[in-house]
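Sample entry (372 residues):
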Amino acid sequence: MKITRRHFLKGAAAALLAGGAAGVWAGSERPTEEKPAAALPLLPRRGIHVFAGGQDVLPALERLIGEIAPSLGLNWVILEVGGGFQYISHAECANPNPLTKADARKLAALARGKSIQLVPMYNCLGHQSWHADVGPLLRAHPEFNEAPDMDPTAEGFYCMSWCPRHPELKPFVFDLFDELLDAFEATAFHVGMDEVFILGQCSRCKGTPNATLFAEAVNDLHSYLVGKRKVEMQMWGDRLLDAAQTGYGEWEASANDTWPAVDMIPKDIVICDWHYGLDNPEFPSIRFFQDKGLRVWPAGWNREESIRRFIEVARKESGPLMLGYLCTTWVDTNQIVKGLAGETVEETRGRRRGNVVAGVKLGAELARGTAG
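Predicted structure, serialized as tokens:
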């Protein structure tokens, strides 16, 4: 999920975490330690989402799965693969120097050895470009573009979408899913589906409500992944939330009328409910998704105050359908792994990687119930 959440990049940056509680003096030369606060219950799913990249990221992925994630108590790793895999069925959908099936099998074996669930992710429907930088699927197959006449260089243009009703699309992308599921030996698959702004533009889709189009896309993916492949389906939840009702805004929730689809999709989908700021510090979506009968997996990013409040609300609203906490990164995986290992991170303009590293560490601690 490449993001341009401009309003999340403003305001105070996440503070780096301090060390453990200091001892106190009790009126003598002998120090006495503070009594530690009782640990909160361990949240069941404690995950991290990272870009899989390609061969240049493989050593970092091995280090993340083999060392870093276990040390942080994380037991789920979502790898956003996309074009970073050497597909056999449709080789044109791979970026240069992608991960191979052998690489994926090695990562899968490493994850099993560390009791980590490894989940491949492929962005579906939206995020088929980054502005005018077209992703490998639409670059190779522009016939799948939902709105080929729209100018991706125009001001305000975000990401291209594929046409959910193109007759050749589903069997094509299901071939890609099959390869990823088999290579990573996965029991779950993340389909993305966030920030879909372009819908209902082509002749096949025009005139159909956006909620119907979105629900059709979700249900088609579910029928294949859950119905045929028998794996868990995960997706981002923003398009299922009403921006006006929740107060989240048009990025964290839908202002383009996709949100009624929440009542048109199967209940066994895991909803990764991402929120990175404090637009609505009550985070009503955690309860909303559970009330709809859907499993919810709250996902935060890089702001300490938001992460703390988000997990606080998640614990308060915790029930059988509240799964845990998912750390997201959205910056270079090589740098994230270096930072999590305590090494110097190379900063760039825009998203400060150090803040993301601090956010992951804090989220992991809070999910374990050990943070102060």
